[in-house]
Design brief:
Two copies of one chain form a homodimer. The first copy, chain A, contains 13 helices and twelve strands. With 352 residues, chain A is an alpha/beta fold. Chain A has two domains: 239 residues, Aspartate Aminotransferase, domain 2; 101 residues, Alpha-Beta Complex (Aspartate Aminotransferase, domain 1), CATH 3.90.1150. In chain A, a hairpin with a 4-residue loop joins β5 and β6.
Chain lengths: 352, 352
C-alpha cells in the first residue's frame, strides 16, 4: 500500500510467466495491437499514436518532453509537488526555457496563473501533473485544456490513469503518459503514452533521444513494423493482461472501487483523529496522504507495518519526508480488506 | 532461435511470477545489491558503478553516450553493422562530432584505422560493438583497449555478455552495456551497464537525459538509496534469477555450452552446403549468419519454421534482409536439442 508499485493483478503476473514470444512474432504483434487499443480505451482517446514506452513512468515523462520541446521553446509548468519539479528538470535538459508556476504542496495546481503565464510567454507547452504522487492532490486538467490557446497541453497521468477519470480527448490533452505500476495494476517497466495530431504535427523531428524517438517507435508499433529496439515483450504481455482485467471488470467499476477504498481509508484515518494532508476537495482516492501525529516516529511505524503486518506504506517527500505518510489503494491493492487491515494495524500501533 | 530475445531460463520466468516487492523494500534492495554483484562477475569488473538500466539494450547504448559525450566532443565509431550505425546516430544526438570508420558488414572492426582516427581527431570516446547482432561478427576489443591512449573506450556487449568472454577490466573498457534478452537468458527490459573510474571522472555532470542520468541513478543503486525513478522490480528479480542460473552452472561452462552449440550449428549448416555469412575466424557462436540459398524465399522458410516447428529464426538486416538468416543460440536456447531440431527442420524444408 505504498505510492506504487501496487500489487499487480494476478492476470498480469501470470502473463509474465508465459513462454516468451519474439518481438516480431505475428502472435506478439497482435497482442501489441490489442494492448494499444486497450490503452486508447483507458486513456479515452482516439489517438492513433497510443503505445507503451519501454521504460518506467519517468521515461514516459522524458519521451513527452523530448519529442515536443526544442532549444529555446517556452514550457510553462504548474508545480505542486515533486513530479512537477521533475518536469522542470526534464524540460530544461531538452533545451526548454522553463517558466515555473508554483502552487503549495498538497493543493491542486491553480489553472489561472498557469494559463496567464502561458499567454504572457507564448508558451509552446503547458505541462502539469494530474495526480501528484508526492502529495496526493488532484489538479483540474480540463480547465487547462479549455484555456490552453495555441499551446500544447502535456499531462502526467502516472498516478491517475485507471484510478480516476482521465479524458484525454474531451479535456483537450495533446500528449500524456502514465506508468504501469499504479492504478493499472501491472509491474513497473512500461510507460503508456498517447499523442494527438496537433502535438504530432508540431513535434521535434529528430529529438535528442534516439531511444524515445516517437517517430521511430511509431514505425514499429504502427503498420510498418520496422524494427527500432527490442520490445520488452514480457512486460507488454503483462500490460495486455492487466488492461484485460480492468476492461473485464469495467473501467467505471474499477474507478468506483478505487473511490470506495480511498474514501473509506480517508474517513477511517480522520475517525482515528489523524489529519489528512492534501486539500479537501482535491484528495486522490488512490493515494492518501496523512500527517504523522506529533511525537510519533514515522520510520518506526512503517517498519512495524512491514514486519508485523506485511504492509508497506510510503513516507513523505522532500520537507515532508518524516511528517507525512502516503498510503496507496491502487490497482489490485484497492480492495476493502486492505483498507480494513491498514486501519486496524495503525490503530494497534498508534494506540488509538 | 532468433537474434534475441532467446528463451529465458526457467528461473528467470519464475521470478517474474513472484509477488512484487516495493522498490524501497529492504528485501528488494538486498536483491538489487546482489544483482549488481552478479553483473560485476559476468562483466569481469570491479567497477563500483555496475547496475541495470531501466530500459532495453538500446537504452544502455543511449545511457553510455549521454553520460560521456558533450556538445562538440569527438566520438570515433568503428562500424561493421547496424548497431555500429546506431551508435553514430545516438552519439550525434548527444551533440558529438562523429567520426565513422567503416569495415565491411560480416567482417570484424579493423582496430588500426579506428585507433588512427582517434589519435588524429583527439577523440574523447572510441566506440565499438563487440558482437554485431546484425552480422554475427565478433570484433577485437582488447586491441582497441591497448591502443586507446587518452580516449575512453565504450563497448556494446549486448550480444556478447554471458555467451563469449568479456573482460571489462583486463581489456581496458571504460564503459559498457548489454541487454538481458540475449546470452543472459532473461526477458528484454533491462540494460546492464558498467562504468569505470576513468570514465566517471570525465562524465557529463548534467546529461541531456534525466532518465538515464548515471549520477542520479547511482544515488539509488548506491548506499544513499535516494529515489530516482521506480525501479522495474520484477524485471530486476528476473535478472537476479537468470544470473543466478548462470553462476550456478558456471560462467565458463555457460560459454562452453554457447560455443559447442554455435560450432555444431555452423558445422551442420556448412555440411548442408550452405554458406556462412560472417568472416571465418570472427564468427559468434551465439549468433550464426548464413546466406539464403539462391532461389529460396527467405520469408517462406521462416514462416514454415515458425508454423510447423515452432522455431523462430531471424531475417537479415539492411541490404541483407532477404539474403541472410540469423540463427541464435543464446541463453537457455543454447541447447543441443535446439541445434539438432533447427538443422533437421532446415534439411526437410530445403530438401537437402
Amino acid at each position: 500500500m505504498g505510492p506504487g508499485p501496487c500489487n499487480p493483478y494476478p492476470e498480469a503476473l501470470e502473463a509474465l510467466a508465459r513462454p516468451l514470444l519474439g518481438h516480431l512474432d505475428p502472435e506478439f504483434l497482435q497482442l501489441l495491437d490489442e494492448t494499444c487499443d486497450r490503452l486508447r480505451t483507458v486513456f479515452r482517446t482516439t489517438n492513433a499514436r497510443t503505445l507503451p514506452i519501454s521504460g518506467t513512468g519517468s521515461a514516459g515523462m522524458e519521451a513527452a518532453f523530448v519529442n515536443t520541446v526544442s532549444d529555446g521553446d517556452v514550457v510553462v509548468v504548474g508545480v505542486n509537488g515533486l513530479f512537477g519539479e521533475r518536469m522542470c528538470d526534464v524540460a530544461a535538459r531538452c533545451g526548454a526555457e522553463v517558466v515555473r508556476v508554483d502552487s503549495p504542496w498538497g493543493e491542486p495546481v491553480d489553472p489561472g496563473p498557469v494559463l496567464e503565464a502561458a499567454r504572457r510567454h507564448s508558451a509552446k507547452v503547458i505541462a502539469v501533473v494530474h495526480a501528484e504522487t508526492s502529495t496526493g492532490a488532484c489538479s483540474d486538467v480540463a480547465a487547462l485544456g479549455a484555456g490552453k490557446g495555441d499551446a500544447l497541453l502535456l499531462v502526467d497521468c502516472v498516478t491517475s490513469l485507471g484510478g480516476i477519470p482521465v479524458e484525454i480527448d474531451a479535456w483537450g490533452v495533446d500528449i500524456a503518459y502514465a506508468g504501469t505500476q499504479k492504478c493499472l495494476g501491472v509491474p513497473p517497466g512500461l510507460a503508456p503514452l498517447t499523442i494527438g495530431e496537433r502535438a504530432w504535427e508540431r513535434r521535434v523531428v529528430r529529438p535528442r533521444s534516439w531511444y524515445l524517438d516517437l517517430g521511430m517507435i511509431g514505425e514499429y508499433t504502427g503498420s510498418a513494423r520496422k524494427y527500432h529496439h527490442t520490445a520488452p515483450v514480457g512486460m507488454i504481455a503483462s500490460l495486455h493482461a492487466g488492461l484485460g482485467a480492468i476492461l473485464e471488470e469495467g473501467t467505471l467499476a474499477v474507478q468506483a472501487r478505487h473511490a470506495e477504498c480511498g474514501h473509506a481509508l480517508q474517513g477511517g484515518l480522520e475517525a482515528m483523529g489523524l489529519d489528512l494532508f492534501a486539500a479537501a476537495g482535491s484528495r486522490l482516492p488512490e493515494l492518501t496522504t496523512v500527517r504523522v501525529p506529533d511525537g510519533v516516529d514515522s520510520a518506526v511505524v512503517r517498519k512495524t507495518l512491514l514486519e508485523r503486518y506485511s504492509l508497506e506504506i510510503g513516507g513523505g517527500v522532500g520537507q515532508y519526508a518524516t511528517s507525512v505518510w502516503r498510503i496507496g489503494c491502487m490497482g489490485h491493492t484497492a480492495r476493502w480488506r486492505n483498507v480494513t487491515l491498514v486501519l486496524a494495524a495503525l490503530q494497534e500501533i498508534l494506540g488509538r
